[in-house]
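Forum: Protein Structure Q&A
Topic: Joint prediction for protein chains with partners

I've read a bunch of threads here and the consensus seems to be that you should model interacting components together rather than docking separate models afterwards. I'd like to see that in practice. Below is the full input, 173 residues plus whatever partners are listed. Could one of the regulars post the assembled result?
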Amino acid sequence: MSHLLEVKDLKKHFPLKRSWLGQATGKVHAVDGVSFHVERGETLSLVGESGCGKSTVGRSVLRLFDLTAGEVRLDGQRIDNLSARQLRPMRQKLQVVFQDPFASLNPRMTVAQVLAEPIENFEPHLSEQAQRARVERLLDLVRLPRAAILMSSRAASASASASRAHWLRIPSS
Ligand SMILES: Nc1ncnc2c1ncn2[C@@H]1O[C@H](COP(=O)(O)OP(=O)(O)OP(=O)(O)O)[C@@H](O)[C@H]1O
Ligand SMILES: [Mg+2]
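Posted by a regular:
Agreed with the consensus. Here's the joint model:
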């Protein structure tokens, strides 16, 4: 049986800087021959000093850019050489959870837009009413008031943290 995720001899080199004529004058070997595999239910941690290429490995697996060399297989299927269009259905199976939740929220988007975007992307057949019901269910799950729907995602996140902090300050006696 194939591995859930298999990465073979992955390389990603970034152009270092460009001359005034736009030509690359060197390159950073951000990832230079990394191989590993992950099975179902398994967690793999990449550990290493800052700048050693951990995030670049993650971004390569997600195909946020083209790879310099190597192979990435998801459930046995190569995804390193797929076009953007071919990758679209694959993206439903790949998800990134950012270290810094604030950096992952687009301050220009409302809470409703942030929550509805993946639903629209992956379940485009849902009616507007069904989408809204799903968004409201998500708000209920994290105990955000329905009124939060129209707030900017940053404001809602800050007010949720503030109310948690307030709750924590209540003395026990
Ligand atoms: N888009 C890019 N363009 C040019 N160089 C890049 C780019 N992304 C990463 N690099 C370089 O590639 C190398 C690896 O970076 P990467 O962000 O993968 O490291 P990291 O292990 O995740 O570091 P940290 O622990 O600080 O998050 C670094 O030298 C970085 O400067
Ligand atoms: Mg990183």
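Confidence is low (pLDDT under 50) at residues 165-173.
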